[in-house]
Amino acid sequence: MSRVAADGYESPVEVINPAGRGRVVLVCEHASSLVPPHLNGLGLPRAEIERHIGWDIGALGLALECSRLLDAPLVYARYSRLVLDVNRPVDAPDSIVESSEDTQIPGNRRLDSAERELRQRAIYAPFHAALASVVAARSATDADLAVINIHSFTPVYRGVARPWQVGVLSDTDRRLADGLLRELGFEAGLVVGDNQPYSPRDRVYHTLERHAQSQGLLSAMIEIRNDGLGSSADQHAWAQRLCRALRAALALVQRHPVQQPSGAR
Length: 265
Known about the structure:
It is a single chain. About 35% of the residues lie in helices and about 15% in strands. By secondary structure, it is of the alpha/beta class. It has a single domain, classed as Zn-dependent exopeptidases (Aminopeptidase), CATH 3.40.630. The strands form 3 sheets. The protein has a 7-stranded mixed sheet, sandwiched between helices. Strand 9, helix 5 and strand 10 form a beta-alpha-beta unit. It is globular.
């Protein structure tokens, strides 16, 4: 039995369509509300874990459909972000949270260093190793590869309504994000957020910085309001919309590559 399985954190990462030849690698860090049995639901009722605090509702279904439409590899985490959030540095205060929104997480209170290190070794490390392997294999044959994160967000947060139906997040390299914002902006009635409802200031760009931006690869995070992802039909419709916009945005980047400074090699 593998060490991960022996420690109770079996199969923390799933890779779908690893041989996909599309120009995109998809990532879904908050795909699942699963908690390993030995953690006893982190001391929470199951209904609490099934809320947005436990996972990004509808995001995995959307990502799977995008993977199919784009022939893209998809890497997703199989455990709830309440166990460990793979989209945070391991030393970040919200890597393993003791509370989320207004909910206390009893199973994360007063964790000792051994348990924290175990979760990091058993969940964070294999997730990022798997993603690094997929990105390396694809970027070796496609220098214009893009890494895209798929997330969802709630219509209301701490009593404040969020008007955006979709948000496009980016950091210092905005090439792909600007194209996506342009393409999505053509759709009448669609409210699109630029670095809304989150931004890199909220520490949500960790995965993309580590595996894409720092390597000069195109990247963007897509956030869909989860009241638009309630059914497989909704997820299919959003996947069609996003894939159209993404193909057009990638074509724009190809026609207008980043300009190198004078004298650069």
